[in-house]
Design brief:
38% of the residues lie in helices and 19% in strands. The chain has 346 residues and is an alpha/beta fold.
């Protein structure tokens, strides 16, 4: 994929996920990318795929621009970001000027891959947690693969409110309100006794510099996401280890305590694992599942892109042991804006 095609592809994705402003910015960059600058040349010559399924250079650039606004490094860019509607030529000219004026900052910023931790993805986690707790009168141990800052490790602290009912603490520090289709699981008493995650490059959201990177990848015309993220950061106290997800998973599976339900989950992360690592992870989970008992069950919840563009969003799939039962829980928007809850299977 060319750099221009990458900008256009990411623009379409942003627009589909409700960020018209980011779509505008990325389309302007696709049209007027400054090839004659150090930043322009670096990105144009980037090895491999620069697009959403590769290096995600458009998101890196967009995140760097937003970071300049959030830190007040560029008041001129902040003046057109995005509270005031300005013409494309004005917006485009200021973006290009910012790329030039803050080139050293952006050259450093794009060295690291984008980091997001979409809190709204906890909505299906909350529902699945209550569904499991209603069937297993056991405390939970949870393990998240690709946990980023660990905000979705705290899912049981959040509320989920829909037209069909409420799940979670009545005094939750944040409440998720997705467009919900289907029945809601019945509320159940659940207790997460221990939680832990892993990420190749975990973010300590309580460190201001690292929190900036997290907030910068929230699109600037979606302030509600920023409010949810700040609320989640305030309660996040789980450990996210730095390491290879599958190596870490092997240890977690081998040290799972008795008399607990072990819930392994990941949200839009599995697709980024190398194929051989994903296959090894699957084999490890299946082998562990074959050995568990009813007093120490194993659950594997995947919230992942299954390539079904016609169905929309990502598939919610749950595998349970003992018995190796697979349940299609439904589908959810990639950013958790909607959930279609349809528990099927035997």
């Amino acid at each position: 994929m060319s750099l221009r095609a990458a900008f256009l592809s990411q623009a379409a994705s942003c627009e589909n996920l409700g960020s018209g402003f980011m779509g505008r910015v990325l389309r302007l960059l696709a049209r007027d990318w400054p090839e004659d600058t150090e930043l322009g040349q670096l990105c144009s010559r980037w090895p491999g795929d620069p697009g959403p399924n590769g290096a995600s250079l458009p998101l890196r650039i967009a995140g760097g621009l937003h970071a300049l606004v959030l830190t007040n490094r560029s008041s001129a860019l902040a003046a057109v970001y995005p509270q005031q509607r300005v013409a494309d030529d004005v917006l485009g000219a200021q973006v290009l000027a910012t790329l030039h004026d803050h080139e050293p900052f952006l050259l450093d910023w794009i060295k690291s891959a984008p980091q997001t931790n979409e809190v709204r993805r906890s909505a299906p986690l909350i529902a699945a947690g209550h569904w499991l707790a209603a069937r297993h009168d056991l405390p939970f141990v949870t393990s998240e693969l690709g946990a980023s800052a660990g905000l979705n490790l705290m899912w049981d602290h959040y509320g989920l409110t829909t037209a069909r009912g409420h799940l979670g603490p009545p005094d939750a520090p944040l409440t998720l309100t997705p467009d919900w289709q289907g029945d809601m699981p019945v509320p159940a008493a659940l207790h997460v006794a221990e939680r832990r995650g892993v990420d190749l490059n975990p973010i300590n959201a309580h460190d201001p510099d690292q929190a900036l990177r997290l907030m910068a990848y929230l699109w600037p015309d979606q302030p509600h996401r920023a409010r949810l993220t700040r609320a989640a950061i305030a309660v996040q106290n789980a450990t996210v280890d730095r390491g290879d997800a599958i190596d870490w998973l092997e240890t977690r599976l081998n040290t799972a305590p008795p008399d607990h339900l072990h819930l392994i989950y990941h949200t839009i992360a599995w697709q980024y694992f190398p194929p051989d690592a994903a296959e090894r992870g699957r084999a490890l989970i299946e082998a562990a599942g074959a050995k568990v008992t009813a007093r120490a069950p194993l659950a594997w919840l995947a919230y992942e892109n299954d390539g079904d563009a016609g169905a929309g969003g990502a598939a919610l799939t749950l595998r349970l042991w003992p018995g190796d039962v697979t349940l299609a829980l439904g589908r959810a928007d990639f950013h958790g804006r909607w959930v279609n809850w349809r528990v099927t299977g035997a």
